[in-house]
Amino acid sequence: MAENSRRELILLEVVDTIEELSSIKEVQRTRVGFADLGMYSGEQLPLVAVVGKLPKPIPKRSGRTTGISDKFLSDLGVELTCYAMDNIDPDSMVSNLADDIWAKIYSNPTLVTDDYPDGLAIQLDVEPEIQVGIWDPYIVFKMNCVYKYIHGTGGI
């Protein structure tokens, strides 16, 4: 890990947060392809893939992305893709898992605080994707998180 990578610290904290959920069996840092879902047993699902994007610096009012001194304000997109198996009541399964993930992500005070540098991020917005994939017996849905955070020139 890069010594000053707040991005990586945020991603690791998101993984740790999701791993605390009893409704989630496994968390990994890579997406699962549809063809690969058959390689997972029922005991390994539900699984959440946590995949981070690169941060997007927020332009200053002048339109430039240069920060005041050596500080930058950036948005970091983090995709949480949940893979589950339920061929009896898939819509209820989606509701329950999405509710668990939503509540847990918003409840982590270590990750998001109003006081920089006490927390890793200063703001969080979670946007569930409207589309849910149901391929009997698999269910796939995604929640897109955007963490607003401050970082320096020495790392993202």
Characterize the structure shown:
The structure is a single chain. The chain is α+β, with helices and mostly antiparallel strands and 156 residues long. It is built from two helices and seven strands; from the N terminus they run αββββαβββ. The protein has helices spanning 6-19, 90-106, and strands at 26-28, 47-52, 56-57, 71-85, 123-128, 133-135, 138-152. Strands 1, 2, 3, 4, 5, 6 and 7 form a seven-stranded mixed sheet that branches. A hairpin with a 2-residue loop joins β6 and β7. The protein starts with 5 loop residues before the first helix and ends with a strand.
Outline of this structure?
The protein is α+β, with helices and mostly antiparallel strands and 156 residues long. Helix content is 20%, strand content 32%.
